Amino acid sequence: MSTTATATRAVRDTFSGLPAAFWWLWASTLINRLGAFVSTFLALYLTVQKGYSASYAGLVAALYGLGGAAGNLVAGVLTDGLGRRPTLLASQMATAGTVALLGFASRPTTIAALAALAGMATSASRPAVQAMMTDLVPERRRVRAFALNYWAINLGFALSASAAGLIARYSYLWLFLGEALLTALCAVVAYFRLPETRPGPARAQPGPDPAGATSLWTVLRDVRFMTVVGLNLLLVMLYQQGLVALPLAMGRAGFDSTDFGVVIAANGVLIVALQIPVTRFIEHRSPGPLLVLSALLTGVGFGLCALADSVPFYVLTVCVWTLGEIVNSPTQMSLVARLSPVEGRGRYQGVYTLSWSVAAFAAPLLGGSVIDRFGAPALWLGSLAVGVLAALGYAHVMRRPWETAPSPDCART
Prior knowledge:
The chain has 413 residues and is mostly helical. It contains 18 helices and no strands. The chain has helices at 3-15, 20-34, 38-49, 54-81, 84-104, 108-123, 125-136, 142-170, 173-193, 210-213, 216-220, 223-241, 245-252, 257-282, 287-303, 311-339, 345-374, 376-397. Mean pLDDT is 83; it is low at 202-212 and 402-413.
């Protein structure tokens, strides 16, 4: 078989077999990430444009994450009770409004309050998207579906990060307005093209209303699931440093917003280039060793930032921890979907995505404080230690075989 034929077959196998509604959800994700300017450049906006300290920038980013934590929990309950589609629409319209207002805010207290509301609105879409995707895609294809969705996220991120660096040199306000406009466009796509996928009573256990069959307390008592969430929290704490601590450290070292845009865009570019072929390689492999490897790569990548002194070196560090991200994301999201019972997918996804919001709250506070008190090298060496700790945790929790995890398509039916 020729190389061209092999490549054609690989592309066909990667993109075929998924429902049309999945691709509309994928398109909505791509549009949303094309406009995801604010969270990436918020730290630079506050320190360079507004003249605030690194600690204040960390506080605002932390409030953004705190709002996201509340948004995840509320949206998880609404996703199971009200439905996936209404929750998604409400979160997208709320995001568009709060982000636009944030661009015009000038008082420190107003900026902080709007950042918290924007974080809440933005994060509220995640449980709905993840639950809808799990509803739409059969279990055997979920690793590929989650990888394709993550690919769309980073394709949009790579393009938006590069463009936003240039736009910011002209006007930061256009970053806020651009994100608001594209998020509103996502809401339009969701309204006209996405179906409601919440499983009906026929698929759930007889008795109580399916939306109430799994409570948040049920999720929190699921030890294996919560251990996975905790380990994800450690890694996301590191990934958040790439959005908050990295631009602060580069700014203090004399680099500007364009330099940071080039560096962080390497994350999206590498994921766009490698996510699909890597996923084809790991799709049917045991997740334990993959999760351990991903944690080690993430820790080493951020640890190397302690030695970085040029844009190419910073790009190299991003490439190392991005390889860890590429392996981790589809593997872990598929594990979470597998551990989630049908009638509780919204709540399970809400708690899982809560780890991202908790990290978005805690990581900026930690990163900004460590940089102010001890300098950036101390933060990067600590990140290396966290990556090793996460790897040890995955090695412990994944001693049980993948096959022993309950299937959400069978659970409680």
